[in-house]
Specification:
It is a single chain. The protein contains ten helices and five strands; from the N terminus they run H-H-H-E-E-H-H-E-H-H-E-E-H-H-H. A hairpin with a 7-residue loop joins strand 4 (about 145-150) and strand 5. It has a domain at about 100-210: Arc Repressor Mutant, subunit A. The protein is α+β, with helices and mostly antiparallel strands. It is globular. InterPro entries: ScpB_csome_segregation, WH-like_DNA-bd_sf, WH_DNA-bd_sf. Keywords: Cell cycle, Cell division, Chromosome partition, Cytoplasm. It comes from Thioalkalivibrio paradoxus ARh 1. One of its GO terms (biological process) is chromosome separation. This is Chromosome segregation and condensation protein ScpB.
Length: about 230
C-alpha cells in the first residue's frame, strides 16, 4: 500500500505547483514544453509562465544532489539520469541498441543539415539510391517525418528531423548540431558527403520544432538557470 509523504497534501509545506510539475515531468516520455506545463497548471489560480519558471528552478535545485536532474532539452523540460550514473543504469538494462547502418547514418546526416529535403536530393548527394527501408526506419524511430511537398512535377515529399531527433542527441535547437566534420567522424561518413557553409546557413528548424515557439525558452541541454 502506497503512503503519502508527510506534509504532501494540498495545504501542507510542500509547494503544490512544484509537486504538480514534478508529477507531469516524471510521467512524460519526452520533453514537456512550456505551453504543455502551463496547460497542466491551468487549475491553479494565479499561475503563469513566470511562476512556472521559478518553480522549475526550485525543482532543479532540489535535485542538485540526486542521481536525477531536471534539464532543458528539445525545447522542453525533462528528468534524466545524471551522466555519471549512466553505466549503472546500462548494467541494469543490458539490452543492446540496434546497430545503425552506414547508409542510414549518411541519410540522417543529410536530412539534418539540408532539411527540408526530398528523397531524390538525398540520393543526388549520396550518389546512390536511398532504400524505402532506410526512410521507414528513420520514420519509425521518430527521427524524421514528412513536412510537406516540393512544388515540382510529382510533388515529392520533403523530409525534416523531429523534436525526438534533437532529444535523442541531447540538443535543444538545430543550430546546436555539431560541425559536419565532427559528425562525419562520429558516424564514419565518407568525405563525399559535403555540405557547403551556404547550405548550412539556410537550415531551418523542422515544422514541429518547439524551439520556434516563443513560449518555449531556448538554451542548451542543461538545468534551468539559477537565480542570482
Amino acid at each position: 500500500m502506497n503512503e503519502a509523504l508527510p506534509g504532501a497534501d494540498e495545504t501542507g509545506s510542500y509547494d503544490r505547483l512544484e509537486l504538480l510539475l514534478e508529477a507531469v515531468l516524471f510521467a512524460a516520455l519526452e520533453p514537456v514544453s512550456m505551453k504543455e506545463l502551463q496547460a497542466a497548471c491551468a487549475s491553479l489560480e494565479g499561475i503563469g509562465r513566470a511562476e512556472i519558471e521559478t518553480a522549475l528552478e526550485r525543482l532543479a535545485e532540489s535535485y542538485r544532489e540526486r542521481s536525477i536532474e531536471l534539464v532543458q532539452s528539445a525545447g522542453g523540460y525533462r528528468f534524466r539520469v545524471r551522466e555519471r550514473f549512466s553505466t549503472v543504469v546500462q548494467a541494469a538494462q543490458p539490452e543492446r541498441p540496434a546497430r545503425l547502418s552506414r547508409a542510414l547514418l549518411e541519410t540522417l546526416a543529410i536530412i539534418a543539415y539540408r532539411q527540408p529535403v526530398t528523397r531524390a536530393e538525398i540520393e543526388e548527394i549520396r550518389g546512390v539510391a536511398v532504400s524505402t527501408q532506410i526512410m521507414r526506419t528513420l520514420t519509425e524511430r521518430g527521427w524524421v517525418h514528412a513536412v510537406g511537398h516540393k512544388e515540382v512535377p510529382g510533388r515529392p515529399a520533403l523530409y525534416a528531423t523531429t523534436r525526438a531527433f534533437l532529444d535523442d542527441l541531447g540538443l535543444n535547437r538545430l543550430d546546436e548540431l555539431p560541425p559536419l566534420d565532427a559528425l562525419r567522424e562520429l558516424a564514419d561518413l565518407p568525405a563525399g558527403v559535403e555540405l557547403p557553409d551556404a547550405e548550412r546557413a539556410r537550415i531551418a528548424p523542422p515544422a514541429d520544432d518547439p524551439a520556434q515557439d516563443p513560449d518555449v525558452p531556448a538554451g542548451p541541454d542543461a538545468p534551468p538557470e539559477q537565480p542570482h
